[in-house]
Amino acid sequence: MIIMALNCGSSSVKYQLFDWQKMEVVAKGMVERVIIGGSFIMHEIPGRENYHHEQDCANHQEAIDLLIRTVTDPVHGVLKSVNEISAVGHRVVHGGEKFTCSVLIDESVLDAVKEVQHLAPLHNPPNIEGIEAAKALMPTVPHVAIFDTAFHQTMPEHAYIYPLPYEWYEQNKVRRYGFHGTSHLYVSKRAAVLLGKNPKDINIVTMHIGNGVSHCAIKNGISVDTSMGLTPLEGAVMGTRCGDIDPAIPAFMMQKNNLSAKEIDSVLNKKSGVMGITGRFTDRRDVIEHANAGDKRCQLALEIESYRLKKYIGAYMAAVGSLDAVVFTAGVGEMGAAIREKAIEGLEHIGIILDRERNNGAMTRKRETLITTDDSPVKVFVIPTDEELVFTEDVVGILNGTYTDHMHFQYSFAKEDFVRK
Fold first, then answer.
1. Residue 391 forms part of a structural domain
2. Residue 299 sits in which domain range?
3. pLDDT tens-digit profile of 347-383?
4. Strand partners, 24
5. pTM
6. How many whole angstroms separate alpha carbon 173 and alpha carbon 161?
7. Residue 146: partners with Cβ closer than 8 Å, 6 or more residues away
8. Among 98, 307, 368, 372, which has the minimal tally of Cβ within 10 Å of its Cβ?
9. How many folded domains does the chain comprise?
């Protein structure tokens, strides 16, 4: 059984083919610069040289058609025919309040996703285009939606309702939703295994840190709070997003510089965060390199980001009670030893004792690592995320009729004998 995972962004299509019988990735890649011109596909097969091919794709259907032709190509592909694909799992960023788990896509589901696309105007429209394109090109296979927001639908009202006019929630569904749900789900299950506990018995803080950043307070195995809100703008310092700020600042700067709502939204989402502080970088590797060379603004960016991370650990420890572990994941979380150290140093008083040697050695996206001392009351792990595996297992569970909510569904990666390939 071959499962395709699709993640359609505004100008890209990321894909993965997974062989369920062998429990391994057979191919993955990305079509980039969709719509904007100069499109190309980068196709990866384990054990083979990467394949790069340039071809303009005016829309997502052309991009998905290109990837299908690539994976079935006699020379560069891995499949004899598209008919070998058993099902497709689609990442959908926003499911609103309706979807608490992954679902088989029919017209009613697609309509419901379209109804909430105003809540994620940068993400849901390309997700929808990808679904429609894939269904057109692969009309006979099941298509499943996997929602970023679903994992956080366990939050209590006091965590997701904003202190705003309640009518805004009733009429416009203004509330905290949270994102990166599949990543928080995966690493929380893996943390339970590493702790030797049942997922329902763990209290942890998961920290997904990439260009986008979100944290999650997980109590008794479920999300009770998360840093991103109505949109992915709220929360931690990110690559280009500001995260938490005084809400009066946008109005102040709009009046001061005669900016429109669209212009200020662009500044907060695309010109702030690490980019805003440094003036030129979003990649933390560049920030660390220039900080070490004496760049004051890069040094400041590291201090600000790490300080915000530390505050979230403390806040979420208060939310979950007795804390078992903190988990770092995603690109920066997995590779940014300097940022991890700054975020957790000085937290001995709350039971976190960093092992610097272990932390400095945890610079791979392939291994799960403990970076605190053996006697640290609260453990800190670096766990590489695998959102595509969550996609795949949800799809297979739905096909087999065994799928249910994440606390009862038996994920392979939540088992003690799971081995990451």
1. no
2. 198-382
3. 999 999 999 999 999 988 789 999 999 999 999 999 9
4. 19
5. 0.92
6. 10
7. 89, 90, 91, 92, 102, 182, 390, 391, 394, 395
8. 307
9. 2
